[in-house]
């Protein structure tokens, strides 16, 4: 299959898939190989970008794991830098390195089926959307996380006009056209980036589609999202609501 496609070093692929692999360890390799199989079975011209940025004082084997994988797979590249931010910084470092006409991003913790990438991308194509994302219709990550997510989504819809149609702000994968991404002004370095993408989709009047998925319990490790992130989300929501209002007045 791969031999039938253009050499990824010579041309821009149809789809760039960014996988956020922070401290995923061996799971990063497993997910990358599963994704490779899914994308090649779908006959897509793709590149896979494994983002394994790391803490300067940490002992994380993930960067070395993804670098070794990238050395043997021409369609896989690895980004392994000392961290200058949290999830948002990692996501932007992957999206900015992507060369594809369409960009996808998914978490590398295995909580969402990797088959979602092809499913979401096909909907984007069929519906001529600018951005398509999932919403978690079934969740197995515990009552606490479900409750926090529900409250967060309700507050988001109350604060931002045009957000009522979105069911699950933070859900991935998110797939967008390169043109849509280039219109966004993403600056968040923390856990707010998923919401920032949706705010930018509203601001730019993008055509957005959603499709259901399941969200599995993470059996391998505890979440990296601290309790303090709740207050961080609230602070960011207020900040972006003010910023959004100023943008509306300038139109």
Instruction: Just give the CATH class.
Output: Alpha Beta
CATH H-level superfamily: Spore Coat Polysaccharide Biosynthesis Protein SpsA, Chain A
Helix count equals: 8
Helix content: 40-55%
> Are there runs of 5+ residues with pLDDT below 50, and where?
1-8
- Overall domain count: 1
Q: Determine the mean pLDDT.
A: 88
CATH architecture title? Alpha-Beta Complex
What gap, in angstroms, lies between the N and C termini? Answer: 49 Å
Q: SS-based structural class?
A: alpha/beta
- State the total count of DSSP E strands: 7
Give the C-alpha Rg.
18 Å
Spatial strand arrangement across the major sheet? 3-2-1-4-6-5-7
Strand count, sense and barrel status of the largest sheet are:
7 strands, mixed
The proportion of strand residues reads 15-25%
Instruction: State the CATH topology.
Output: Spore Coat Polysaccharide Biosynthesis Protein SpsA, Chain A
Describe the global form: globular
Following the backbone from N to C, one meets helices and strands in this order, namely: EHEHEHEHEHEHHEH
